[in-house]
Amino acid sequence: MSGAGAPDFFYREAQRLGYVARSAFKLLQIQKQYKLIKPGSSVLDLGCAPGAWLQVACQSLGPLKSGGNVVGMDIKKVKVPPRCDLRVQTICADVLNFPRQNIRELSPQQKGFSVILSDMCPSVSGITTRDAALSAELGMRALDLAVGKAAISQSPDDDDDNEGGGGDEDSRHGVLRHGGHLVIKLLESEDAQDFARICKPIFHKASWLRPKATRSSSREIYLICQGFR
């Protein structure tokens, strides 16, 4: 079971339907409302352990003949879970230090991904402000990987120097295709609102969603960014 607490409806449903974690229902709801992953999409799943989002992403690609691929990355070693087909692969690596050109090479024709999912979360300390700041920083790293420093620097709300390779040409461009979509998990806070203000000029639409499968004790919320400009 993922997270603390007694087994609930979503945990039991995950077991019944063959999902490796209840978190599958979060992405299922995102898919139902926003339809980000389409047949033939190329999907990058950051922080993919234990693999429930890989399962949902794969089934969202449609039948095998539709094509597409799903790449999951996590610092933990993750086996491709049941319900996935040969379009799914996993990489054990720290995505924050993995060369983005190597990530781009995992996409079809090395042209980038049409959907990037970030379910990454820092180790929680219990100190609300600290955890929120760490979550926003992790989200910013995912955004940087997706769209690159060139796009972020054009956002009027961005006043961050974005440490780590500002002059590196590879870091100026991300691995998300134009028109692509990005989903980032954050912890509810003022930091998260600031983060959203940076994202809004970069995408055609950015909206918040707290999936029904989120535990009542959790402060996590998802920013759904649609249509990379």
From TrEMBL:
Region (Disordered): 152-175
Classification via InterPro entries: RNA_methyltr_RlmE (IPR050082), RNA_MeTrfase_FtsJ_dom (IPR002877), rRNA-MeTfrase_E (IPR015507), SAM-dependent_MTases_sf (IPR029063)
Species per Swiss-Prot/TrEMBL record: Eutrema salsugineum
An example molecular function term from Gene Ontology annotations: rRNA (uridine-2'-O-)-methyltransferase activity
Assigned keywords, A-Z: Methyltransferase, rRNA processing, S-adenosyl-L-methionine, Transferase
Similarity comment: Belongs to the class I-like SAM-binding methyltransferase superfamily. RNA methyltransferase RlmE family.
Residue ranges of domain Ribosomal RNA methyltransferase FtsJ in the record: 19-228
Compositionally biased tracts (Acidic residues): 156-168
Protein name: rRNA methyltransferase 2, mitochondrial
Catalytic residues as annotated in Swiss-Prot or TrEMBL: K185 (proton acceptor)
One Pfam family cited in the UniProt record for this chain: FtsJ
